[in-house]
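pasting for the record
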Amino acid sequence: MLFDDTNKVQYIVSRGSSNLTNWIKDAEYRKTLDSKTGIYIHRGFADSAREIYDNILSKLNTDYTTYLTGHSLGGAITVILHLYLMKAGFSVKQSFRTSTSSTLSEGVDGGLSPACGLSVHSMSKI
């Protein structure tokens, strides 16, 4: 995480898989109904995102604009964190992910999951 107190901006960066535990999470592809969002999410990605969310929530400032980015597993986590933070009342300006894995179920945003592309940008329709 990076905080810019002058401009009231916070950045959250999630890294990609780097160890065996991460690879196991990548492989846990059963969809599970997520209690925070009410949508079906890849179980391994959701577990990882929830763990990070629980660890960072108390450090974040609701008065700051939030940007998120991540690669691979971190890209999937970025999409889920974006949703969690929006639900929690944070101003999430933009998310960018570089990854090809599908995180969310189809039909979330007009038919095709925003997680299927390279860039989330704004998910305010959700």
